[in-house]
Design goal:
Layout lengths: L2 H15 L2 H15 L7 H8 L5 H25 L5 H24 L2 H14 L3 H4 L4 H15 L4
Helix pairs in contact: 1-2, 1-4, 1-5, 1-8, 2-5, 3-4, 5-6
The structure holds zinc ion.
Zinc ion binds next to helix 5 and helix 6.
Length: 154
């Protein structure tokens, strides 16, 4: 999923929990679970891993995704009366942290994160491997609809 989807879902779950610890835990768990829905990014990760000449496109996608998610979270924080900035924040941290851990693993190949990389892709590829992926265009449209719905819950 896009980082914006993970961040907004984490924020909504975080607020619902009412505690920073459960906000983080709920955001983190929500990342792994929602990533199980095929969301059109297998072509991008293949571009990164296998077709080296298309790596630039995958990197650009991640950069756009990351910057857009920051702007959207700032937009939410500045247009809503966030009940608890702490649960909002910890939900978002839990929601996006798994992809940071995977990114750090891809860059460093550190054995400290090898297990987590496996866990992340166990969930991420669970239905993808059995049923195949969906077109990225549809997956992004579906996420826009989901984000539009979720932001009403903040
Ligand atoms: Zn992920």
């Amino acid at each position: 999923m896009t980082l914006t989807t993970h961040a907004v879902l984490g924020a909504v779950i975080g607020q619902a929990t009412g505690s920073p610890f459960w906000a983080f835990f709920g955001g983190f768990a929500s990342h792994l679970l929602i990533d199980m829905i095929p969301h059109g990014d297998s072509g991008l990760s293949d571009n990164f891993r296998i077709h080296k000449q298309k790596q630039g496109r995958a990197v650009a996608y991640v950069a756009v995704d990351a910057i857009f998610s920051i702007l959207f979270v700032l937009f939410l924080a500045n247009t809503r009366d966030i009940e608890s900035l702490r649960t909002f924040t910890w939900g978002i941290i839990g929601g996006v942290l798994p992809d940071l851990m995977v990114g750090v693993y891809v860059i460093t190949k550190t054995p400290l994160l090898k297990w987590f990389n496996w866990v992340h892709f166990f969930f991420h590829d669970f239905f993808l491997k059995r049923r195949g992926d969906v077109p990225l265009y549809y997956a992004l449209l579906a996420q826009i609809v989901l984000i539009a719905y979720l932001q009403t819950k903040l």
